[in-house]
Amino acid sequence: MEITSEEIYHQIEKAKKGKQEAFKFLLDFYWNEVFGFQLKRVRNEYEAEDITIETFAKAFDKIETFDENYTFSTWLVTISKNIQIDKTRKKNASIYSNTTDTSNEQVQKIPDHSPTPEDKLIKEQNLAELLRYIKQLKPHYQEVINLRFFHEMSYNEISETLEEPLNNVKVRLLRARKLLAEIIIKKE
């Protein structure tokens, strides 16, 4: 079955209203396009996956700002490209700071990974019901959801707490969100 542009815009509108199945649809539909774009740019599968995860997280956090006069895939690729450029600048700045006497504050502009308004809203909405859904997840998924949304830890803090690479934390959290969304959809 071919998916029409009308169906895509319908899903975007549902996502703007916070419908989890719409986010899942958009993630599934556009994942390969964004991942493939990044894989060509960075030529590293893990880095491309990391950037792709960040792209969807940022896009979904800011979905209400999407302008329907543009195509959604172009918007996603633009976000993805900007994240990749920021990461490259940060990496280059880190290299530069190790070879100069310039202070780290001036050289490194690290993006804020603290919880977003969406994260805070999830925490406030029907907490008891959400906890019942979370308990249906496997323990390692429950753990990252708990750290991210209830302890309001950044990705870096979760990585340090679990003593796992940042990329693993991001992938596990994305997977946990996806599984949680599937549980919620089944219950609705």
UniProtKB/TrEMBL annotation:
Give me the stretches of Polar residues compositional bias.
97-107
Q: Which residues form the RNA polymerase sigma-70 region domain?
A: 33-92
Carries keyword Transcription regulation?
Answer: yes
Q: Name one GO biological process term.
A: DNA-templated transcription initiation
Q: Which Pfam families match?
A: Sigma70_r2 (PF04542), Sigma70_r4_2 (PF08281)
Region of interest: Disordered: 97-118
List the InterPro entries. Answer: RNA_pol_sigma-70-like, RNA_pol_sigma-70_dom, RNA_pol_sigma70_r2, RNA_pol_sigma70_r4_t2, RNA_pol_sigma_r2, RNA_pol_sigma_r3/r4-like, WH-like_DNA-bd_sf
Q: Which UniProt keywords apply?
A: Sigma factor, Transcription, Transcription regulation
Q: Which NCBIfam families match?
A: sigma70-ECF
Organism, scientific name: Aequorivita sublithincola (strain DSM 14238 / LMG 21431 / ACAM 643 / 9-3)
Q: Where do the RNA polymerase sigma factor 70 region 4 type domain residues begin and end?
A: 128-180
Kindly provide the name given to this protein in its UniProt entry.
RNA polymerase sigma factor, sigma-70 family
What residue intervals traverse the membrane? Answer: none
The family database entries (SUPFAM superfamilies) matched by this protein are listed as:
Sigma2 domain of RNA polymerase sigma factors, Sigma3 and sigma4 domains of RNA polymerase sigma factors
Say if the entry is tagged with keyword DNA-binding: no
- Name the protein family: Belongs to the sigma-70 factor family. ECF subfamily.
Molecular-function GO terms, alphabetical: DNA binding; sigma factor activity
